[in-house]
Amino acid sequence: MRSCLAALLVVAAVASAPAQIPRPAPTVAFDDDGFDLLLRQIRSAQKELVIAIYNLSEPEVVEALLKAKRQHQVAIRIKHDKGQATQEKMAIALKLLREAGVEVTECRGRKGGMLSAMHNKFMVIDGARVITGSQNWSRNAFQDNWENLILVDHPDVAQKYLLQWKKIE
Asked: Is the pTM of this model over 0.90?
């Protein structure tokens, strides 16, 4: 009788447990394959892109962000490293994004000093996916450097990155 009751309790617990939603395995891209992965994710956004980026100067990435904002009304919020904003290509990119209504915020590192950096490189797509890695969004990074990006399709991970983004000042 006890074993029958125990078996029923196990069956009831399993039946009432929330079903696990299968998630795709992370997508990994190296070097210039990262460029394609990044552009696909920007173009796939339906609601929001939340970005923390050290260097954003690649014209095709900027154009994809502008198109997402203008044609698809995607809300875009960017935090970037203040020191990098003095570079001509990045200054031009940030100006274009601001003029299009993108929320752009300059940040420093955690210590706030001149030598500290906001060195993150991630984007949260629609609160559900995250793309992150070593890759800056610059021509050099995409064409010349050994770089990597990983796409994680998991809302719990995306929420952790959104919390981190909110902490960046």
From this structure: no
Residue 41 class from Cβ within 10 Å (0-12 exposed, 13-18 middle, 19+ buried)? buried
Longest distance between any two alpha carbons in the chain, whole Å: 78
Half-sphere exposure of 162 (CA within 13 A, CB side): 17
Query: Does residue 64 fall inside a structural domain?
Result: yes
| pLDDT tops 50 at residue 15 | no
Closest C-alpha among 102, 70, 104, 111 to residue 85: 104
Q: Which of 131, 107, 12 is nearest to 55 (CA)?
A: 107
Residue partners of 106: CB distance under 8 A and separation at least 6: 79, 80, 81, 82, 85
DSSP line for 107-142:
E--TT-STT-----EEEEETTTEEEEES--BSHHHH
Instruction: Give a yes or no: residue 10 inside a domain.
Output: no
Distance CA(69)–CA(98), nearest Å, equals 11
Task: Establish if 76 belongs to a structural domain.
Answer: yes
pLDDT digits 0-9 by tens, 142-160: 889 999 999 999 999 999 9
Give the Cα separation of 157 and 124 in Å (integer): 9
